[in-house]
Design goal:
alpha/beta; Rossmann fold; six-stranded parallel beta sheet; three-stranded mixed beta sheet; 14 helices
């Protein structure tokens, strides 16, 4: 008998080319007083934010823009955004961007309704009230923050990325319009795409995986394998962008409901310590952590290989599982991901502290194989 599960998904998701035009009408129908638009300066300067706020203007929706979000959003970012939210008597949040604006907007929404400091909510379901109603417009195909019950904020004092898993941060409307993802730089496309692959792979082999998440994750792996190289090669390839938009959306739903693993735990430390872009950190660490995990579920790794286009018909299960790691590494190399964490500024003298912090990360609980301090340090060393 299939087990019972609790599934968290946004009440409404808009996915596909051109869906952005429907969002303003959805917001207008909610009869909000004023919207806080949470984004970053680059998207504002490129005109992406204006393309969205023009739609709000056309519907007569009032808003104020906060564009100070950093690539790894900090406690200070959250507090600054919250101050603008309160000063302008906002009652709705609209995030525009990749995972950073999405996560910052979720954090602002949680504090707006629950109070306190964002550090109070590090962990699992620590808020009491649902966050401010939020619509999340995703402009990259990777983080899937727009569909998950997760958000990550950097504690700049401790140099630690705090992971919050909280059903109260789930957005009201998730938007994935691949037309907004066109012409993004190749390095950004590669990093966010490999982030999506990490989500799918970790969800598939997670200790919390189940039948529904397995189907979602393996399909996402297939879509990413088919389209990421093309999206990186040609930023105007709408078909590739559309497949990646769907892939990251599906992978996000999977991991949000079954958990991740030690790739994310280890990657969070690179982000906290060296401000490494999250997708790049995940991509570099993914094959090393999964090599460690492979004995826990070789059958699943064999299926990952098959989903990535490897002909496993003449291979043993072990050979096919090893082929999955090779396929992951090949994809990473083909899209221009650095070969090791040394290129990201990682220093061996930091590994023990990073390993300890990684073991305390909430994502570690989902890893399919128990990780010790020695294991964690060995993984960092192998990835150097």
């Amino acid at each position: 008998m299939l087990e019972k599960r609790r599934i968290y998904l946004p009440p409404l998701s808009l996915v596909g080319p051109g869906v952005i035009v429907d969002l303003a009408e959805e917001i207008k129908d909610l009869a909000v007083s004023k919207v806080l638009v949470v984004t970053d300066k680059i998207l504002n300067e490129l005109g992406v934010v204006k393309s969205v706020t023009d739609l709000l203007d056309a519907q007569g929706v009032n808003y104020v823009v906060f564009d100070e979000v950093k690539p790894n959003p900090t406690c200070a970012n959250v507090n600054d955004g919250l101050a603008i939210f309160k000063e302008n008597n906002c009652d709705f949040i609209l995030t525009i961007g990749g995972g950073s604006p999405q996560d910052c907007g979720k954090a602002i929404g949680i504090l707006a309704t629950n109070g306190g400091e964002i550090k109070d909510y590090e962990g699992i379901n620590l808020s009491k009230k649902k966050g401010t109603p939020t619509a999340a417009i995703n402009t990259t195909a990777g983080t899937a923050s727009e569909v998950t019950i997760n958000y990550v904020i950097t504690d700049e004092e401790r140099k630690v990325k705090m992971v919050m898993v909280d059903k109260n941060c789930l957005v009201s409307i998730a938007v994935n319009d691949p037309e907004l993802m066109l012409n993004k730089p190749a390095p950004l496309t590669a990093a966010t795409g490999m982030d999506a692959l990490t989500h799918a792979v970790e969800a598939y082999v997670s200790a919390g995986a189940f039948h529904w998440s397995d189907h979602m994750a393996i399909y996402a792996i297939q879509l990413i394998s088919e389209s990421l190289r093309d999206a990186v090669k040609d930023g105007k390839n709408l078909e590739a962008r559309s497949k990646m938009a769907w892939a990251q959306f599906i992978a996000g739903q999977a991991f949000s409901n079954c958990g991740l693993g030690f790739v994310h735990s280890a990657a969070h430390q690179l982000g906290g310590q060296y401000n490494t872009p999250h997708g790049v950190a995940n991509a570099v660490l993914l094959p090393h952590v999964e090599r460690f995990n492979l004995p826990a579920s070789p059958d699943k790794f064999a299926k990952i290989a098959e989903a990535m286009g490897v002909d496993i018909s003449a291979m043993s299960t072990q050979e096919a599982a090893e082929a999955a790691l090779d396929a992951i590494s090949s994809l990473s190399k083909d899209v221009g991901i650095p070969s090791g964490i040394k290129e990201l500024g990682a220093k061996p003298e930091d590994f023990e502290l990073m390993a300890k912090n990684a073991l305390a990360d909430v994502c570690t609980g989902g890893n399919p194989k128990e990780v010790t301090l020695a294991n964690a340090m060995s993984i960092y060393e192998s990835a150097l």
